[in-house]
């Protein structure tokens, strides 16, 4: 079942619908709406609803002359669904509800508004005049375009995080028409407008990072990703952004935490006491590895703990934490091809 009051967070990795087989062979008593597993789905949670949007198929290829593999993406049909987190269910039969079609794209930022009645997907076309964002109304199950525009709507690798106190959404890096990634874009739900603030040089040029709202400190936590140009991995530290002071700092932690990586998943507990980082990829000299590692940071003691590795390493997954259970869905898994060599 989904909810567990006994399984410790450091050992509870519940991965749902990692293959189509798990869904199609669910017991008849639990037969549910079919939601196809994908990679790089956009995702966001509000209370007992976990939304996943878009995504598609990815295969790792190694172009001639490249040391490492790169993703070859094929966007899906804009699948959009919500997972019911309010009641227990078997891992083989999650309680999905299909919703109106979302943007047919992969890995775009999404965020809810503070009261959970609307969702915004920041995914534009190639041109400045293209619609950049779509707003979903949870009550009517309909989408409509936002009025906002940005210089580079095709930018990938950013994350959107809601500050529920001010009903504003933060996207570090921004959508400027360059690779400086030095602007903090702020979306204002109340007015459907974007503003921006300059970011310190030390935290710029990052893409494919992860970010979550830290409720106990009213701040945003950032981890991982690549820097541009390069790409090169970001230092394995957690950056903290305080929206009130518009200030940045580095979280001082102890213990053996995750090293440099990207394409991982990160989630935080509702009470702001546990941060989990799962999966991802890292490079070491001439070797690239996809991992099933899971790390838990106690945000009270600031001590990292490594949990039991998941049997199937993965990248591009979605995740959240419900009570004391870590939940992950979708992704690329690997078995015999978890390591790629530069040869």
Automatic annotation (TrEMBL):
Write the signal peptide boundaries: 1-31
InterPro entries xref list: Kelch-typ_b-propeller
Q: Which UniProt keywords apply?
A: Kelch repeat, Repeat, Signal
**Source organism superkingdom:** Eukaryota
Q: What is this protein called?
A: Kelch repeat-containing protein
Organism equals: Linnemannia gamsii
